[in-house]
Amino acid sequence: MDCSSKNAFAISAIFIAGFFTHVLYQRWNPAVGEIPEANPTVQNSAISVTGEPHTHRVNYVPLSLTTAEETNPELPEFLARDVEKIRSLTGKQARVRGRVFRVGHSAKSNTYFLNFGPSREALTAVIFSSTAELFDKTKTSPKSFENKEVEITGQIKDHPQYGLEIILENPKQIRIVN
Questions:
Q1: d(Cα 91, Cα 167) in Å, to the nearest integer?
Q2: In which element (H, E) is residue 14 found?
Q3: Which of 18, 34, 63, 120 is the most interior residue, by most CB within 10 Å?
Q4: Is the pLDDT of residue 35 over 90?
Q5: In sequence order, which residues have a C-beta less than 8 Å from that of residue 58 and are 6 or more positions away?
Q6: For the whole model, what pTM was predicted?
Q7: What does CATH list as the number for 77-176?
Q8: Domain ranges, ordered by start, for the chain
Q9: Distance set, CA 122 to CA 73, 87, 98, 99, 135 (Å)
Q10: 156: closest CA among 101, 64, 82, 102?
Q11: How confident is the prediction for the chain on average, in pLDDT?
């Protein structure tokens, strides 16, 4: 291939790419006043029929560490050994109080399991790796809850494989009870 044919090929490729870009631009950005036929009340462009740009209200609400899962006196409180009562609250928020029987740790996934009893039927609080980092920042080790009376808040889940559990997403969801 000589130099002139390479240049002709490059110019053709650039022209085709530019034409394709122009077609896509027109497809995604209809002209002012053009309303899609499927639903004439909906406009997909950033400019209205009158030529004015659309305005969209934006509300800014900062995220805070305070959540509904923190100690909330309005949430029902149950004892960790009342497994059937807790199971009846699956999918709902609740406060659960009990003694942590054992704290297990998976080094592979850096996940902690706070078991409230010796059997698989007992409630388990789960602290995943991302939340374990938050515990490290507050200088609280999940292992420190072993053999302590604690109160946890969160959504009750009845996992088909692992049983009853509450996933702790914030260190404020667990506190040691005197």
A1: 12
A2: helix 3-28
A3: 34
A4: no
A5: none
A6: 0.57
A7: 2.40.50.140
A8: 1-58, 77-176
A9: 24, 10, 11, 11, 24
A10: 82
A11: 79
Of the two residues 69 and 47, the one the predictor is more confident about is: 47
Write down how long the chain is.
178
Q: In this structure, what are the phi and psi dihedrals at residue 41, rounded to the nearest 5 degrees?
A: -90, -10
DSSP string, 85-134: HHHTTTTSEEEEEEE--EEEEETTTTEEEEESSSSTTS-EEEE-HHHHHH
Q: Look at residue 145 and give its three-state secondary structure.
A: helix
For range 7-18, the mean pLDDT: 91
Q: What single-letter DSSP state applies at residue 29?
A: S
Taking CB atoms within 8 Å and a gap of at least 24, the contacts of 92-96 are 92/155, 92/156, 93/68, 93/69, 93/153, 93/154, 93/155, 93/156, 94/153, 94/154, 94/156, 95/71, 95/151, 95/152, 95/153, 96/123, 96/151, 96/152, 96/153, 96/166
